[in-house]
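Re: Re: token formats

Sure, here are both.
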Amino acid sequence: MQNRWLIFATLLLFSVPLHAAEVLDRIVASVNGHVILQSDWDEELEYQSLMSGHEVQTMTAADRTAALNRLVDRELLSEQVSTTEFGQTTADEIDKQLQQLKSDYVSNAQISWSAAVASHSFTESEIRDRIALELNQLKLIDMRLRPLVQIDNSAVEDYYRRKFLPELQRSGAQPIPFAEAAPKIREVLIQQKINEALPSWLQTLRSQAKIRVFDSTSLSSDRGQ
């Protein structure tokens, strides 16, 4: 998300009368002085609608609040990305993720990917930008939280016996030796632990940030210091 501090300051300092046909893109929240606009919120809801297949009009108040929370968390993570050195997402990685996204969408939707994107007022370039942002933030999360995760051999063996082998049997596939399956199982368990640790880290970032919400129907109050 772009830094809109200048826009924020201008809107606070000047009140310009609007004609009836003009609409002000109002501020709904700010994170450490970086504003989140109503248009950002609307765009997030449209993207959620595109990904889920549910119309924006059917989304509940809880869905809208969750979308605004994602924007706040995304801004916090973007600040971390800007101050952290790691390998940025490449065009090839974006292409691969986009193709997977298209494949998943087409297998579950009744219209083409291009028609769906256009119906939600997105361009493919904007979708690529979103993918790049998400992949960069996933890399950041992995870099910060993976070193905190410890998976011992007994956990890997337990997963292999209790879940991995039974799933193979149900699918009719041939058994895979433990030595061959162990690295993939370990990675699955690491990702589970990272997902479990993420909410706590995000809450820590929130507690250290100055978060203000100007929409009374969304987040409950000002947060942070």
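Second one below.
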Amino acid sequence: MRAAVVRSFNEDLSVETVSDPACPDNGVVLEVAACGVCRSDYHGWVGKHPRIENGSILGHEYCGTVVEAGPHAMHRIGDRLIAPFILGCGSCPACQTGVSNTCERQIVPGFGWPGAYAEYVAAPFDHNLVHLPETMTPALAAGLGCRVTTAWHALTDRANVRAGEWVAVHGTGGIGLATLLLAKMLGAQVVVVDVVEQKLAHARRHGADAAVNAAETDAAEAIREIT
């Protein structure tokens, strides 16, 4: 298969022909339909992640179609699936209590496991994967398993945001914008904070009720005045 491979930090990825991934007994191999680019990928690309080395294949925001399924897999060839960026084992105490992101056996494609900047990616523990709705495009779906789930966890499981409350979002990158959109969906009012005016304008176009440029004013004081 073809894959984009890390050969030197801070250098262009090398598009190469590499071996197809082996199918895990408890998982599947996906033909990648789309893969997002995360800031974590950038950290690996510049050499700031301990699991990234010469030969690594990045990419953990992916979706695709099953082309091979292991004997103990839940899914079947032809299924269109989307994956979370952390694949928990499903059987340890952490997974059993709903915090699979702390699973000691977790696998994260792109970080110590070949990722989805490739034609195919192997996904063990395929109980983590879910079916992709026919109405959702792969490009839209790809980011759901990382930036969107991160934002959703913060808003619902941690902050317990309710309609009418104010939410302050610091930074308007992928997670920040996902937090903005989800908070608005929950009925909250949102103030976004950034230091780049163009990004603040982009957030306003996507529903931010207020925006604060932290390069020009005291962000904490501005938030208090707005809310």
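The first strand starts at residue 2 and ends at 5. The mean pLDDT is 96.
- S.
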